[in-house]
């Protein structure tokens, strides 16, 4: 009996040891649930829904003690979700959002500095300007993990429409857009138009008109030399009149007035127009929709040698933040070090060239050849402009207060009003908009004891040239 009992006990112990061994073998390590650290990542970048799962899976293979819980936040409701998390002091470990600017996040004490991740030597691997104050930095500290480097707008063309109608010229100037647009309308019997854009997407119209206006009026939008806003410029007027002339001559599709950017893109791929004005991300979206027969060129200029420029400036949604209240900084740092070495290549594979690093230095197979064209257009269009925050951080407080009370009208809404006939006096409307905008701007400045109008003036600004650290030093402020 004792022998049988001893045998039974021995068998039980052996079974237990085998079970433990199997558990360790299946899990590769001996971690229990208590040993695993879970990091929350909230993402509201559309393309991130594709590349973040791939990166997370790869990371977790080699870091079994860290799990990443990805929450793809709905863009429409994201601001409310983030504000609720802030109110409850419950921000996720890592997050992407444009709910606040970098200065606001830092001022509110909500984000963790990332200096260890981006020492000076690492910063040298990134595009010039990415680590400027106001982009990823506040003062001497890095707070935003840079993923992208902003964006711009360009003109896509449908090669199928060209082939079907025997069109040979891809327009570069306003005159060519008119000529080719009328030719397309006539040859297609009205089935296709030359130009199309999503007019119901106000941000798109605002961005395109603003860029095109800088050719005739480099001070269009904001006059850096005089420190004031200016929307009543020759450039703005001429650009809006250009679109109206296209519409009146059947070179601009009237569908532009009725649809947003998403529908406009679908109409473009179905052959309703030969040219589409949209953002740099459109190439990636066209590729995902399996429409491959397209090309891309810069926005058309009035003159053959005309110049346009846009601000090289990162927004909050161009990168990722870490919550200052994270309880897992060491694990967050391990994950972000992995991202720093791997995320840019994955984004390029997805077809988005405007990564914060030089895309040419990352050796991956591009999904479509126009990726490099889009990157080149961005580099030629985007320049570093003066930023008051660099010299006086309190100007961010003015900007926050100003935007709360700024007129609801925009360049985009004025343009659409003019195209639909609701705006009759274009110059007068633009002047009133400018006056109202500057009135609120001045009011916000006067309400801050740490800021004066001089903080916004950069008399050494040269249009179409990047504003450098040396330029800031020349001001002696």
UniProtKB/TrEMBL annotation:
Residues 1-24 form the signal peptide. Pfam families: SBP_bac_1. The keyword Ion transport does not apply. Keywords: Cell membrane, Lipoprotein, Membrane, Palmitate, Signal. This is ABC-type glycerol-3-phosphate transport system substrate-binding protein.
